[in-house]
Amino acid sequence: MIRTKGPEDHPFISGAGGGDVGKRVLCFFLIIFNLSVLGLPAAAVPVEWEIKVNIPAYRLTVYQNGEVYGSYPIAVGKPGNETPVGEFAIVRKVKNPVWYPPRGGAPVPSGPANPLGYRWLEYRTPGYGIHGTSNPASIGHAVSLGCIRMNNRDVEALYEVLPVGTPVRIVYETVTVETDGTTGEIRVRAYSDIYGKGTTTAAVLQEKLAAAGYTAMPSEAELLAILAQATAAPVYLAGSIAVELNDRVLAADAFVAGGLLLVPLKALGEALNVPFTWDGGQNKLMVGGREVAACYRNGRAYLTLEQAEMLFDVRGEWRTGESAVVFRLAG
């Protein structure tokens, strides 16, 4: 029987066929020991599979050859028993693990009452692992003593494809910024700072936006407003497509959505002296005396390229290679 000391919720874990597994584990540690003593590198594991865990997002994402294979909800360690961050790797897999109560008592065999579920993927020794659960309602919460819980069906499926040696990267990011490679659109999410690390700040968001190549940087007040909105739902920021009029850059926040290029109304209207007003009482946007149906993003109005050409009597050219839309006065 294998016994691995670990966190309180699973200090000892074993699986069926303990004798053979024990020999393999002993052999594994002897090999690693000898390689360490001799200064020889361990055999490299081809990086086909990777796991990334973002603790505040309660999300585990699996990559295969750099592409997202699947993304799964999880439970993580509660404050005081935080899930460790860092670079790890799966070192052991156990099917139908036995759970040994932390304060003594009879071992809990594999079954519906076992807190570890039916699969155990150990990524840090002693005793930290990705495992199933007998309490699916705990998923999406910080309730464990450091381990990562998954729905049983999810971890059982991953158990079959993820080999020992799979890299596991665990991060604590309360602010995330992702860029759509096709549209250039940027998505901001903010998550609860469950461990009180103070990472949900305007400075953090500004740094992440800059790293993503975002050029129309909001003010500090706007950044804080974005974070407040992004806690409830993703906030989409226009991409970095420049808007030019007669070789003058007016803005850098045009973006693509649903295959349509959308340009900022305010930048074009002010540059061309075309009046635009919003009638809140009648819920109408008027541009040059015409009622217009616009797209709204973060409180700003955007027009399609065709709308802009018609309303402002201009001709627009979308230069995808330069990430710019260039307008010229018609005629």
Give a structural overview:
The chain has 331 residues and is α+β, with helices and mostly antiparallel strands. The chain has 3 domains: 13-171, L,D-transpeptidase catalytic domain-like, CATH 2.40.440; 175-237, no CATH class; 241-329, Copper Amine Oxidase, Chain A, domain 1. Helices cover 20% and strands 36% of the residues. The chain is built from 6 helices and 25 strands. The chain has helices spanning 18-38, 152-161, 202-211, 220-230, 265-271, 305-312; strands spanning 13-14, 49-54, 59-64, 67-77, 86-89, 92-95, 98-99, 119-124, 128-131, 142-144, 148-150, 167-171, 175-179, 186-190, 235-237, 241-245, 248-257, 260-264, 276-279, 284-287, 290-292, 295-297, 300-304, 314-319, 324-329. Strand 8 and strand 9 form a beta hairpin. Helix 3 (202-211) crosses helix 4 (220-230). The longest helix is centred in the first third of the chain and has 21 residues, at 18-38. It is elongated. The protein starts with 12 loop residues before the first strand and ends with a strand. Mean pLDDT is 83; it is low at 1-12 and 16-43.
